[in-house]
Design brief:
Length: 76
């Protein structure tokens, strides 16, 4: 879900609340859920080694884009 959709969903939910107590409860619950979603989860050693191996394989098989290619894709 993009940021605009999330904002609209938040506003709609907020407007549907009927009491000040519910507003406080909903805001606190939402803030807690957002904190839990955004927790940093480090890779295990095995996960990191697997990613490194896949990246090296991709490079060896020429499955990558150069910096120039990436920049040209996002130029306006």
């Amino acid at each position: 879900m993009d940021i605009q959709s999330r904002k609209l969903a938040f506003i709609q939910a907020f407007l549907n609340l009927q009491s000040e107590e519910m507003i406080g409860q909903k805001l606190m619950k939402k803030a807690k859920n957002m904190d839990e979603e955004n927790q940093f989860k480090p890779f295990s050693t095995e996960e990191m080694n697997e990613r490194i191996s896949r990246s090296e394989d991709d490079f060896n098989n020429k499955k990558f884009k150069t910096t120039s290619e990436l920049l040209s894709k996002y130029e306006r």
